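User: Let's play a game. I give you a shape written as tokens, and you guess the letters that built it. Ready? Here's round one.
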């Protein structure tokens, strides 16, 4: 539970406050047994409890102002703890205020200075008294000692608090009475009331009835725009007929002078010298300032003079070039007069110093044209060609008319975009391709190449075979082409003997819109290979039989037996034929001409010569590698043509004793005999 007690501050020690046992319904006889104790957060123990009766009394007098200072309600909180069983009770003591403090003022006396020229009704705030008591015991009203020149009025602030004001009732005259001594008394509402007072000393000040006067109402000065800080502009002077502080003059800029000008210039408060204080960053040729001269009177009087400063311009600003608009890249087919950029050129200097001339290099296909005020247009003056020059760095030079002139340059980077104005160009007027016959299928033949100075899709070249026929067949049955790189491939094997050369056209086309193209003739020459053996035209054999030539029995030396005639479908050295005698049954009887193929006798025939002879003639070309054909000629020695030709399977000579077959049989027999002898030897060794 909780219980609240009220007690006046400064209550003497031992005074009864109440009975805690009775108020809380606790048996007082059990307080000691239950180990009661009071707990508080205060540094002092202001109350005691009688353990036998439960009586609550004052242990220490309470000073409310010290304990709670300016709080309107002053409370002390205690907790009563009992054990067996454990119980907790809250006690709250409300400390009541008594009128034990008198009103007091912060200072021992107050001084007020009043000029003698003040009219009745002038008000001056008087100090407020402080009373540490609260409520009705605090300050309630003020009184002023009687005086014919002053009276007291109470005023109320916005928060409801009151404060005293001293009101002038009658005009002052310093010559009659220079000082007035008053007493301000503050009273509280206690019973009995208490009060406090403070002396108020009013000093009447001499009237400052003369204002300073300038020598000139308007001052004029002229300075250069680039004058450094500290440069003297002008010195003003004013006089005041009063004496003492009322006659001492101080100079300053009037509040009507702009803050910017007050930062650019400074004025000495005593000498009146106006000097440059910083950079004269102004665009006006004439500056207007107001200078105030004020005396040092209590209520200083003042007068104002005008200062006109003419700023003489110097050429200290170069032209400023601003790119307002820029079109880049521009197409190379832009017509002359196309606007590329809009420039703003401005010079902050006035007059001639601010007039600007603008130009660019003469060797460029551009020109500057004046537009609106301070604006120029950069336009094309000639046709452009990106393939010659793909970009331009245009330097714009702006110069003012000052002395010396100032120049500013700005560079504009203009790119030229491509248009498809160039057709592909081949690297030659015609291409000659040489290919050997019997080429493999898909063999690379040649790569045509065309260039296009345009870029991007406009410069990307593709290749195509124009429709045509070769030897009565479509060109596409002979060749194929890579559209991207111009490589030409064979789709069939060429045969020199059937087709020695042909030509066709290749078209190169770019990917622009519209597309541009060019064509070129490609001549294909087929080279011969030694792919044909000589064909023997004479003598010929029929049904596999040997050609037979009849020679007189007793023919003379150098007798023409026959002439071997052959032909080769190849060309050049592949068709150059030579004749050779590969075999002859009698090498001393016949000879063969290597160039003509004529077979002649080397001597006169004899009666002892065999009647049948056989020769083998080889016809060889000069290709690489060489190819050859053979023909076998049977020669019959007879004076008349027999009714039946003999068999020329043998040459008419006795067969040799050792031919290849006989050698193989002899070797086989020797091997078998050797193996048999070795086996017999092995058996004999085993038996022994």
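Assistant: Ready! My guess for every position:
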């Amino acid at each position: 539970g909780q219980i609240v007690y009220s007690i006046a501050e400064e209550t003497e020690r031992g005074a009864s406050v109440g009975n805690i046992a009775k108020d809380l319904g606790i048996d007082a006889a059990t307080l000691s047994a239950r180990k009661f104790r009071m707990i508080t957060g205060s540094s002092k123990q202001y109350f005691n409890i009688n353990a036998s009766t439960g009586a609550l009394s004052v242990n220490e007098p309470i000073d409310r102002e010290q304990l709670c200072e300016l709080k309107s309600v002053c409370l002390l909180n205690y907790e009563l703890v009992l054990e067996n069983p454990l119980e907790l009770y809250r006690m709250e003591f409300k400390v009541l205020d008594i009128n034990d403090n008198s009103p007091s003022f912060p200072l021992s006396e107050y001084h007020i200075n009043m000029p003698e020229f003040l009219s009745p009704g002038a008000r001056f705030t008087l100090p407020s008294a402080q009373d540490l008591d609260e409520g009705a015991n605090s300050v309630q009203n003020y009184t002023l000692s009687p005086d014919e020149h002053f009276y007291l009025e109470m005023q109320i602030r916005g928060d409801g608090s009151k404060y005293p004001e001293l009101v002038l009732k009658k005009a002052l005259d310093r010559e009659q009475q220079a000082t007035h001594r008053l007493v301000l008394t503050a009273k509280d509402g206690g019973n009995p009331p208490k009060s406090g007072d403070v002396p108020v000393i009013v000093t009447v000040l001499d009237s400052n009835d003369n204002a300073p006067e300038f020598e000139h109402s308007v001052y004029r000065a002229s300075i250069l725009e680039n004058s450094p800080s500290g440069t003297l502009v002008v010195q003003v002077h004013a006089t005041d007929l009063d004496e003492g502080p009322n006659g001492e003059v101080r100079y300053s800029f009037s509040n009507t002078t702009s803050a910017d000008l007050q930062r650019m210039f400074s004025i000495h408060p005593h000498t009146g010298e106006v000097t440059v204080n910083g950079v004269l960053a102004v665009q006006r040729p004439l500056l207007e300032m107001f200078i105030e001269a004020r005396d040092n009177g209590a209520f200083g009087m003042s007068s104002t003079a005008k200062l006109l400063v003419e700023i003489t311009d110097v050429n200290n600003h170069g032209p400023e070039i601003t790119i307002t608009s820029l079109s880049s890249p521009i197409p190379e087919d832009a017509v002359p007069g196309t606007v590329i950029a809009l420039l703003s050129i401005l010079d902050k200097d006035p007059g001639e110093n601010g007039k600007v001339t603008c130009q660019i290099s003469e060797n460029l296909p551009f020109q500057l044209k004046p537009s609106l005020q301070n604006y120029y247009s950069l336009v094309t003056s000639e046709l452009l060609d990106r393939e010659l020059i793909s970009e331009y760095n245009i330097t714009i030079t702006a110069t003012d008319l000052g002395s010396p002139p100032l120049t500013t340059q700005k560079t504009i980077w203009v790119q030229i975009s491509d248009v498809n104005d160039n057709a592909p160009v081949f690297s030659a007027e015609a291409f000659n391709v040489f290919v050997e016959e019997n080429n493999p299928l898909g063999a690379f033949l040649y790569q045509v190449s065309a260039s296009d100075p345009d870029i991007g899709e406009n410069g990307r070249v593709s290749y195509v075979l124009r429709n045509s026929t070769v030897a009565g067949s479509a060109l596409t049955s002979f060749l194929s082409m890579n559209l991207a790189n111009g490589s030409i491939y064979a789709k069939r094997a060429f045969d020199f003997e059937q087709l020695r050369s042909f030509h066709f056209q290749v078209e190169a086309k770019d990917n622009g819109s519209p597309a541009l193209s060019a064509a070129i003739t490609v001549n294909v020459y087929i080279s011969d290979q030694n792919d044909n053996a000589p064909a023997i035209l004479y003598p010929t054999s029929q049904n596999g039989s040997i050609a037979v030539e009849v020679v007189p029995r007793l023919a003379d030396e150098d007798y023409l037996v026959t002439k071997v005639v052959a032909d080769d479908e190849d060309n050049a050295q592949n068709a150059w034929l030579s004749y050779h005698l590969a075999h002859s049954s009698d090498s001393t009887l016949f000879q063969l001409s290597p160039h003509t193929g004529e077979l002649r006798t080397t001597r006169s025939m004899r009666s002892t010569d065999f009647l049948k002879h056989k020769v083998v003639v080889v016809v060889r070309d000069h290709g690489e590698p060489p190819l050859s054909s053979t023909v076998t000629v049977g020669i019959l020695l007879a004076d008349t043509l027999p009714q039946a030709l003999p068999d020329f399977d043998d040459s008419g000579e006795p067969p040799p004793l050792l031919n290849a077959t006989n050698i193989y049989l002899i070797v086989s027999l020797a091997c078998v005999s050797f193996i048999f002898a070795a086996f017999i030897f092995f058996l004999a060794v085993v038996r022994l």
